[in-house]
Every structure is written in C-alpha cells, then in structure tokens.
Amino acid sequence: MYNKITLLGNAQDAGRPQIGCTQKCCEDARKDFTLVRNPVSLGLHGDQFGIVEITRCISHQLGRVNNLKLSEIWLTHAHLGHIEGLGQLGKEALNSKNVKLRCSDSVVDYVMKHPIWKKLVIRNNITFDKYFSDEIIPIKVPHRAQDFDTHALLFKGQNNNLLFLPDHDTWEETLESVGYDNPKDWFISLGASIVLLDGTFWNSDELKSRVQSQVPHPTVSETIELLGNRNKDDPRIIFIHLNHTNPLHYPDSDEYQKVEGIGWEIGCEGMEFEL
Length: 275
Known about the structure:
- With 275 residues, this protein is α/β, with parallel strands linked by helices.
- 24% of the residues lie in helices and 24% in strands.
- It has one domain: Ribonuclease Z/Hydroxyacylglutathione hydrolase-like (Metallo-beta-lactamase, Chain A), CATH 3.60.15.10.
- It has helices at 24-31, 58-64, 80-83, 105-112, 115-122, 171-178, 183-189, 220-227, 254-261; strands at residues 2-9, 41-46, 49-52, 70-74, 99-102, 126-129, 136-141, 150-156, 161-165, 192-198, 236-240, 265-266, 272-274.
C-alpha cells in the first residue's frame, strides 16, 4: 500500500523552539527560522496518503507534501505531542470526513475519554480502524504506560523494511520485552534495513529544569555504545525525536560528528525513504 515515507518532523513532542525555554538552543531557533524543528511525524505515500503521529504542526507538515488528502493516521501512543493535532480535523479547521485513526485499544479508550477528541468521532471527522495490516506491524514497547501502551511500527516494503521507534524507556526493558540481547540483533531479526530511532537526549545531564529520570529515554550516548561502529551489512540507523536541548540539532557539534563518524545518521526533516 505504501512505497515511500517522508520524515515530516524530527523534534521531541514540543518542537524547537520549546515554549518557555530561554536557553541558547531555543533562542537560536527564534532568531533563525532555519533552526526551527517540528515534532516527529511521518508521511506515508502510496495508493493513498497517511501519516504517523498527528502533531500541533500538522498544517506545516502537510504543506511539505503539497497538502495531499489525508486518508489515515497511525499512532504509536497518545502522549500529547503525538496526538494533539487531532483537533485540527474538527469543524473549526479541516472538518475531515471519516479519516481512519489506527491505534491500540488503550489509545482508543484514551481518545474517547477526551471530550474534544470524542466529538471528532461523534461527528465522523475520524473513525477507528484496525491497528495492523499486512504492511504495518505494531510492536509493543515499554514507555510510561500509566494511561495507555506504546508501540513501535514496522513498515514492510518490496525493497526495504523500516522500523519507527520514537519512544521507549530503556534498552534493558525493551530488549527484554522483544527477547533480544542487543539492538542490532533485534533490528536484523525484523528484516529492518532502515531504523528511525529514539534520540531524545544526548546524555543523562541534558535537562536543567526537570529531573531527567522522570522523562525516561535511552540516551544517544548509551545507544551508540551498544551499537558500536556501523558494519557493511548493518541497517541504516537514523536518530529522531530530538529534544530541543539535544546538541545533535547542530551539524557542526562534536556530538553530531561523533555519531556520523561511526556510520550512523541524524534525521533531517524532508528525508525520504523508499520501501
């Protein structure tokens, strides 16, 4: 069904600049619009057009792909940055008709408890559909599961399989849940030749105004230590979902050069991947 994926956003849920942040990372982006980053989302191209995650920047993100008609939305989970664009489908904005929303049962329950999003269902702006297909396979992963569960998504294509994993808590928990000892073995078992991977934080000391352990994500530093150097037959691994504080936003940073120097990549909005 889908033969190409576009990276429509590469930032963590709040985007960059982030509201309330007066650090250099966000002040730079306020002064230079080329440094602005949208929250993570994918465009799915084929015999119809879909997206993964629906962010508050959905208007700009659809503009990047010439405002193709939206047929369906896949969600990995329901943290606000991944779902808050649903309101743009209501009668005050797009007033969509029966756009399919594909998400897990726990996310369906969460949506139906939200009075604004529930109205979208009642008014047929969105309609729930099954959370799997022959080409798109959800894989449950551990990530702050108080209100709903979280899934990675595996896209199976004729030429490439792509794994989308923007959020998970720790490698220890995730690898235990999928039954592998290291990330590369898991990716290879899925036949994934492209992995869009949680790169939220560079290290564990990045947040200054919050306790970072309360926002669990494997750091990029930890992940590249597990991955090591890229070998000839390894999949492409591209770090996405970057927090506004992450130095990987700067191509001239030491951190960016370190990741690229061992063969891995940092996502860039507009990247395209053939399936």
